[in-house]
Amino acid sequence: NRIEIVKLLLLTHKIDINMLNNILINIICLMELKIFNFYFTPFLIAVRENNFEMIKILLQEPNINVNIQS
Please, are residues 42 and 25 in contact by the beta-carbon 8 Å criterion? Predict the structure, then answer.
């Protein structure tokens, strides 16, 4: 379960909760393949996935910065 793994990782205090993660997204536009690089924090990924339980857990972290933009 991802939730339990995230909880364990947060307990270590050795991870950067605000670290941007590179996500490649392939988009086919007008018969042409385009690759875009997007950067998301764990919080932004949880929001994009509508993972409310994960959002709640991440918001409990004192060092979280919800204003980081991708």
Answer: no
Whether 15 contacts 63, CB under 8 Å: no
pLDDT tens, the chain, 70 aa long: 688 988 998 899 888 889 888 776 666 666 667 777 788 889 988 998 899 999 999 999 999 999 987 6
Which of 22, 5, 1, 10 lies closest to 64, judged by CA? Answer: 10
Read off the pTM: 0.73
* Overall size of the chain counted in residues: 70
Closest Cα partner for 57 from 68, 69, 67, 42? 42
Neighbours of 68 (CB within 10 A): 14
